Amino acid sequence: MTVKSKSIKIDTSKNFEIIDITSKINGLIEIDEGIVSVFSKHSTSAIVVNENESGLLADLEFMLDNLVSDKFSYNHDRIDNNARSHLKSFLLSSGETLPVKNGKLDLGTWQSVFFIELDGPRRSRTVTLTMVGE
Ligand code: ZN
């Protein structure tokens, strides 16, 4: 069994942005069989797995904007003015652990891995890949 680490740097161009990183991850996998942890090192972003369909991705933004209303004032805004970005990140996840088979992510037909920017635009967002397997 081996453990290997890689990282992906992502520049984002919008306040809310969904970026499909599936092929980037597949290009960096260095094990044949095992698991890969995909982890975002930022508290105003997320990693999720779902379908890459434009209507659905717009629905995700709509849902988050409605769950984390801009009608309220939030405590964190007193120091940083990005409470809603953090709260959306709480609702999602900072990472996913995914199966690897034959050197690639073993996803379902309609599944992709997304980096979600919740407080952009930002330069050099870091996503780490930790691979465990053989
Ligand atoms: Zn903050």
Structure characterization notes:
By secondary structure, the chain is of the alpha+beta class. The chain has one domain: YjbQ-like (Jelly Rolls, Sandwich), CATH 2.60.120. 22% of the residues lie in helices and 37% in strands. The strands form 2 sheets. It has a 5-stranded antiparallel sheet, with helices on one face. Strand 5 and strand 6 form a beta hairpin. The longest helix is centred in the middle third of the chain and has 14 residues. The protein starts with a strand and ends with a strand. The model has no long low-confidence stretch (mean pLDDT 98). Zinc ion (ZN) binds next to loops.
Query: Which topology does CATH recognise?
Result: Jelly Rolls
Average pLDDT: 98
Strand order of the largest sheet: 1-8-3-5-6
Query: How does the helix and strand content classify structurally?
Result: alpha+beta
